[in-house]
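wait is this the right file?? whatever heres the structure
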């Protein structure tokens, strides 16, 4: 059996970590895995060290799928290239998609074999938009990396840490700064692990309160376990302030390293923390002063890092994740949601953000499909060019109502016609 994991961008975040973890689990089960990306990042070498990894555009993927040895293609449901890849894989491989933190409205039994979600919340908000039953397969963590190691307790004051993209609206970094300012006044230090390399200029007019962090900058993926262990050694807290998450990987990763973790009780975080076991959940609408007071009181209490880490390892074991996917691989037919009990769309506090993001996704998806159509046309792949172009125009037609797109449309149409002409000639030649 062979599984191809596709993603448009090999990024530095949690999705890449999950793809790597699944690849290791597949290898342990004797299942072949390979990765395919269209854009690189500084983490590409991690994938290359684990399994065959390709960085190439859609025409090359068409060639790869034509070999016929791929059994499953797995993707994030909202990835800009996922719908097109699913179409290209049709009749060649079964498609599995995963809702990781966004809404998707284009997956059905016609283009997908199995639909999973990394949290119950993600499954519930996406279920009304598909006829497939969305199966919850919660994110796991790499237990070989995220663990407690002997560390001397620091003599300096406790650290309040933020981990994530400070410029992402969903992370609500301004709220973190307001809470941090109250705790700095009580003696805590601030560390910010930020791949965006943010600065205060990015947060003017956002409600952020300026604090002086002791650290603010990128922390490599390889260094994150030590980052969490240092927070734990300081008797500090990793504070998450997200408005919504697919699944907050930071929470179990930090807890597995023995750190205290606190987060609002919102989608994707309430399942990433076992309240008062692996961390603390606080009401999403709690005011900043209340959260700061809770955190200050908490760090005055004893903290058993080993017990927290052990509970986290049991709760978020990758074996559980792999068992669930192995069951899907053995299945012969899609698992469908009963047609007569399709749930109505849920209105949750996170829904406005999810709908706003869905609009952006459609733009990104159409841009990817249009660019792919041009690449496929240049490669002489007429049928695939038509499919990609049709998808782009259906997804966001207004994006292409301009002279430049019209010229590109003509060029792609010529490629489509040329492909059909070549096919017709080949067919006549074969008949004799």
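ok assuming it is, sequence goes like this
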């Amino acid at each position: 059996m062979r599984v191809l994991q596709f993603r448009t961008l090999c990024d530095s975040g949690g999705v890449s970590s999950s793809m790597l973890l699944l690849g290791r689990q597949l290898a342990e089960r004797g299942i072949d895995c390979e990765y395919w990306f269209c854009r690189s990042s500084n983490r590409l070498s991690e994938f290359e060290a684990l399994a065959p990894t390709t960085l190439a555009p859609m025409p090359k993927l068409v060639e790869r799928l034509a070999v016929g040895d791929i059994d499953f293609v797995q993707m994030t449901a909202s990835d800009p290239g996922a719908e097109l890849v699913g179409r290209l894989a049709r009749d060649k491989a079964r498609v599995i998609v995963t809702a990781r933190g966004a809404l998707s409205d284009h997956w059905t039994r016609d283009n997908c074999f199995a639909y999973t979600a990394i949290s119950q919340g993600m499954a519930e908000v996406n279920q009304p938009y598909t006829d497939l039953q969305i199966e919850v397969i919660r994110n796991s963590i790499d237990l070989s990396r995220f663990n407690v190691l002997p560390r001397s307790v620091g003599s300096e004051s406790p650290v309040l840490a933020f981990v994530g993209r400070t410029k992402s609206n969903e992370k609500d970094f301004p709220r973190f700064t307001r809470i941090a300012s109250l705790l700095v006044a009580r003696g805590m230090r601030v560390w910010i692990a930020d791949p965006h390399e943010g600065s205060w200029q990015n947060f003017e007019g956002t409600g952020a309160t300026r604090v002086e962090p002791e650290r603010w900058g990128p922390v490599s993926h390889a260094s994150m376990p030590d980052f969490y262990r240092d927070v734990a050694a300081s008797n500090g807290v990793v504070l998450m302030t997200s408005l919504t998450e697919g699944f907050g990987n930071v929470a179990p990763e930090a807890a597995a390293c023995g750190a205290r973790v606190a987060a609002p009780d919102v989608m994707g975080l309430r399942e990433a923390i076992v309240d008062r076991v692996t961390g603390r959940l606080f009401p999403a609408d709690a005011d900043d002063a209340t959260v700061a007071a809770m955190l200050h009181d908490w760090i005055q209490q004893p903290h058993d890092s080993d017990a927290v880490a052990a509970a986290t390892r049991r709760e978020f074991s990758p074996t559980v994740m792999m068992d669930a996917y192995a069951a899907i691989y053995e299945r012969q037919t899609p698992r469908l949601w009963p047609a007569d009990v399709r749930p109505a769309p849920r209105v949750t506090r996170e829904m406005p953000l999810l709908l706003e993001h869905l609009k952006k996704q459609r733009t990104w998806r159409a841009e990817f499909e249009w660019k792919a159509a041009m690449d496929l046309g240049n490669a002489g792949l007429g049928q695939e060019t038509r499919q990609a172009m049709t998808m782009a125009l259906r997804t966001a037609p207004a994006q292409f109502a301009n002279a430049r797109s019209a010229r590109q449309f003509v060029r792609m149409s010529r490629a489509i016609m040329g492909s059909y002409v070549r096919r017709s000639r080949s067919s006549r030649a074969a008949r004799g």
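Residues 403-431 form the longest helix (29 residues). so i think its the right one actually
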